[in-house]
Model the fold of this input.
Amino acid sequence: MFADRTNWKFDENRLSEALARRRRAGQPILDLTASNPTTCGFQYHAGAMLRALSNPKALVYDPDPRGLVPARRAVVDYYAGHNARVGVDDIFLTTSTSEAYSYAFRILCNPGDEILIPEPSYPLFAFLAGIQDVKLVPYPLIYDHGWQMDLHSLERAITGRTRAVIVVHPNNPTGHFATHSQIAGLNQICAARELAIIADEVFLDFALTETAAPTFAANDAALTFTMSGISKICGLPQMKVAWLVTSGPRELKAQAVERLEIIADTYLSMNAPVQYALPTFMDQRHEFQSQLMARVRKNLSELDRQLGSQRACTRLEVEAGWYAVLRIPATRSDEDFALFLLDSEGVYTHPGHFYDFSADGFLVVSLITPAEDFAEGIGLLLSTFDD
Ligand SMILES: Cc1ncc(COP(=O)(O)O)c(C=O)c1O
Done:
């Protein structure tokens, strides 16, 4: 009865099973993967948010395929803060960046067409692409005192069916930005071959470096779709607001926007209350982001302090984002180690292979974990390497 594209593996993986077993048995868990900002102890202005959601204007149905203008203006202002001029009509609001990806895939790809994705990266891509009948082709990120895109390998991965290159800027979980010269190289490759750039910037605001990395939102050398949303930048994943900004050579951009408008008009997926509330949510992001960055810096310095007194485990460089990648001895598979850590110490981490690291020996931990849990969990993790 069902389409082949839905023939997923429905069994839980061994780690999720072990986690569920532990929860059922009421055993303690130190969750070093915590990434839901609404349950990590950050303070929000609840009253102002709830008032913003009860705007009487939302009682009238007056949809716009791109999203209501006051909401899109808040997005224009956001990019002005990143020194990028974005036109209010170049923005489409969506319920999530996942939905924004689906719009971009839909206007770019016929079934079986290919999109290049960074590896390692965020694990949702396989599902997003599979649902749209798009084939993902990885291009490697390489680590040498910091992560970088390997533009030669990227170029070699291009085939006659390639339609776009995804750049996660900064990438999850490696936490690195594309550099100016990599962006220039990518633009050259994409412009010459009529490939689009899809830039996922959900972590753009969470830089640990002094100088802010530029957004792709005004990138005009190649057709570019830049996406972000309030899940991360305001810490409000439950509000379901994200966006897609189109930029690029004038004619291509006009054609893309025309097509996006039909898709968006077909779904009209945004609800009115949340759109009227968006300017308020966006105003509150600064306070949220400073709390979050304080947590990230505290956990990172605790991590470094504990790593300093042993030699088995190190951490990779991180420029931005909510995650740290740990290098551990590859004496068994990452999944086996993560399982052992959960069973023996009650510490839950993500094995590198969840993010398609090319080899064993990597664990990913969330830097927004409440600080006490983080310190205790890292201590227990490192104790497993004691002789
Ligand atoms: C790189 C990246 N893009 C997108 C998302 C999802 O964002 P949204 O909630 O807007 O779909 C995540 C969530 O973790 C992410 O890590």
In short: The chain has a mean pLDDT of 96.
